[in-house]
Amino acid sequence: MNCPTDNFICNPFLYFHLAANAIFRDHLPEPLGTIIVLALTVAMVTTLIALIVMSQVWAERRIVGFMQGRLGPNRVGPAGLLQSVADAVKLLLKEIIIPTQADKIPFMLAPLLVLVPSLVVWSIIPWGPGLSVTDLNIGVLFVLGLGGIPTIGILTAGWASSNKYALLGGMRAAAQLIAYEIPLVIVVLVPVLLAGTMSLGGIVEAQSNLWFLFFLPVGPVAFLLFLVAGIAEVNRSPFDLPEAESEIVAGFHTEYSGMPFALFFLAEYANSFAVSAMTTTLFLGGWGGPILPPFIWFFLKTYAVFFVLVWIRGTLPRLRYDQLMRTAWKVALPLALVTLGVAAIELSLIRSLLG
């Protein structure tokens, strides 16, 4: 669907922003009007994130329940839709317990170090044509840079907890995230090379005729490598070794309770959605699609990728740690380098043939 950015169906958020400006900035003295509009914008984005995360939690529980012959949440609200709300209320009411020997300031800052970068990534995701908070010309580099910060937060949580299992989980996370970050960065260069830009919006527009997933032979391989590395980056099964309950209690967040634990939980699902959205942007044509508004297409593709993440979680067992690291260094890294090299050679040949 070819939508102009000033069309309400294609960009309803623009109309909300214009309405807020008309109500507050035009009738209140500065900087009060601007502050209120910014606060409303942040509140709208935060509400959107909360709704998406709650929908992810509900969908994952129902889908995994179906796969395992269970009902999943079905008591709170119709079809269990309000179960995530009940969980949020429960976590808000729980006492925050800080271990006696814990380093209190890093202990409380760690959840924010994990969550905040996850949410900042959402600000440059292109939901539709002209429908993003900002479109950086180095958007891919910005996302990759933010992706390294949660590693510090997880390691801080493990170290500050004064718990050997939490420390072990934090060290596992640091080793895992660094190992999979390298093939992830390399394979992201494939769509950047094909599009000729690091702008996420530019990468989507470059796929108007052909999704990079179908750019043979490198597209499917790059897509698969990005998805596997992305799952490892967000600590989801079968790569959830940093919080392996059967081995190290709950890993880096063993000593967390109440809202600090809820922030880790929120960060995991916010990261899962971000990985799904980046997969859609880099390989599945982003918002492109017929008939429906662009942002609807973007959400449909993103939730389809998230369904694959849930499917993998409900199907595959957790890897051993040596298998996890061997996959990163001996399989993913060489394959990513070969894929990038083949993409560069293929693109050079195509350009020379086209003159």
Low-pLDDT residue intervals, each spanning 5 or more residues? none
What gyration radius follows from the Cα positions, in whole Å?
21 Å
Strand tally: 0
**Percent of residues in beta strands:** under 5%
H-E order: HHHHHHHHHHHHH
- Please bin the fraction of helical residues: 55-70%
The overall average pLDDT, rounded, is 84
- Integer tally of domains: 2
Could you please describe the fold and organization of this structure?
With 355 residues, this protein is mainly α. The protein folds into two domains: 93 residues, no CATH class; 254 residues, no CATH class. It has 13 helices and no strands. Helix 7 packs across helix 8 and helix 11 crosses helix 12. It is globular, with a radius of gyration of 21 Å.
Q: Brief description of this entry?
A:
This protein is an all-alpha fold and about 350 residues long. It contains 13 helices and no strands.
Secondary structure layout:
Elements: H1 12-25, H2 32-67, H3 83-93, H4 104-121, H5 139-147, H6 149-160, H7 164-195, H8 200-206, H9 218-233, H10 245-248, H11 258-283, H12 294-313, H13 321-354
Descriptive labels:
single chain, 355 residues, mainly alpha, 13 helices, globular
